Amino acid sequence: TFRIHIASLGGSGWRRAVLLTFEDLSEQRVTERMRVDFVANASHELRTPLASLLGFVETLQGPARNDASARERFLAIMREQGLRMARLVDDLLSLSRIELRAHLAPDTPVDLAGISREIVDSLTLMARERKVTLKLTIPPEPVQVPGDRDELMRLMENLVENAIKYGKEGGEVAIDVVSGASEVSVCIRDDGPGIAPEHLPRLTERFYRVDTAASREAGGTGLGLAIVKHIVLRHRGRLTIESTRGEGATFRATMPRFGVPARGAS
Ligand code: ADP
Question: Which part of the chain is the Histidine kinase domain (predicted)?
């Protein structure tokens, strides 16, 4: 699709100079479409817990006004719905902050090995609840990338949390930090049911879930991998996802080492 702009550059009669510009609208269209879809999805995701919250408020004000046991149960559900909305708003804010800074390459040296250790420590309790063993392998020396510490913590946290949530109950999650000559990578592997190939290309889209009910049950917002992808891209890296049905999934984020000049830089 093209839009044609016509501008008169002056002159008159057959000497009139006219400038014709052809503008390709297809890419702009796609971006606009994605924005509209995103707003619709976000609104729907917020609307659902909000409707439930309001429904319980009305029940508590009306039919269940004097029912003490119902009150306790309903308040617990309302708290859960409120927390779900809060998680969603937090994730939406994180995503837009990361996107706003997309053009600014982070440059502080951050040790991925240290971050991985911290994340494993902080998720030990969550892993224990699903009887999952976390197995961390890191090189003896620090593994530095030019980065943003908070974002890299978030990246590791989202990937390890997903491996615990969607991996096998009683299984193992392996976290490997690998240091190469010009690049470093973190690799998170679980031994759960894995992901069918048709889902893989869409997994990092906002609100894309393989199993919506399972994601909600696990407290997911559907934004975790979109956040991970944007963090990796801002760090001039790449994210690869591999999975064989029944044999778990592997998420690998690869980024340039600290001190290695950006490709194309002199
Ligand atoms: P959510 O908040 O739903 O966890 P994510 O963006 O983090 O959102 O993940 C998107 C979807 O990808 C999840 O809902 C789940 O279906 C799938 N997924 C993510 N990690 C794994 C994994 N390690 N194994 C199997 N499925 C996964």
Answer: 41-259
